[in-house]
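Regression test attached.
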Amino acid sequence: MKHLLLIIAALSIPSAYAADCQSDRVKLQILGSRGPEFLDGRASTGYLVWLDGKARVLVDAGPGSARNFAKSGANYADVRVMLLSHFHVDHVNDFSAYVKAGFFTDRTAKLRVFGPSGSRLASSAGDFVQRQIGKNGAYPYLSSFIDPEAASSYKIDTTTIPWSEKNLEPSLVYRDGDFTVRSVTVHHGAFPALGYRVETAGCVISFTGDMSGRLGAMPDLATGSDILVAHNAIPEDAEGVPALLHMKPSYIGKMAARAGVKKLLLTHLMRRTVDRQDETAALIRKHYHGPIAFPDDLDVFHP
Ligand SMILES: [Zn+2]
């Protein structure tokens, strides 16, 4: 019986992308294509999924990504969901900036925020939001956004997704009439981290976030993705701590091939990878034969 359940679980994702991707309705925009360094002036991690001309799903909120959100022309009032991959500074530091900037928009709808559970070194999603904008947080003047008793123009509703190395099955995180979001546990050193899969209008866009590949669940989550956004934070010859935290180009190539990805975008480049893009692409092409791009901030891709 257990085996049967596993088979059903494995089949549940492929059935979801049987629909044809209505590519002209969907856009992925890069809000931040770099990692945590002072490097070349680009923003840290952030992505935006548009449907029918409206910005609906935000993925990560790294430093500078909120500024690029403004440049993108997106309306914050349209955003339904913010998906946070993990609680390193380069992925979440603009969170409070979004909350406050949102006060000056016409937003009234609740913003749903998702992220993983915590560890000794990392906040959980719920704790992170409390520690930012809770009454005892860094910015208590913003606590009305999460206090049900207080008046505020809109509310933040945070969900902590349990992270466990023992559960590598995809989780259904969010669903509305237009979007389905799933997450999976990924390995990123001592930091609980999630990969995400966003489905809309028959299209699939997946995000690895930062991950080493050690737990192996991300390729299944990304199966059949029209676009996979993978983080290219280390070169093939990386050793030590960086190699414990991040995946090598050969792993990215194997993952994209196994998942049958239609387009691969490489982001979160760092000083150690930014000048080695030709080498990285060649290593990936040994395994994966679809299109590869190293996008700039604000670049737009149709699935
Ligand atoms: Zn990072």
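Expected vs. actual: identical. Residues 1-11 have pLDDT under 50 and may be disordered.
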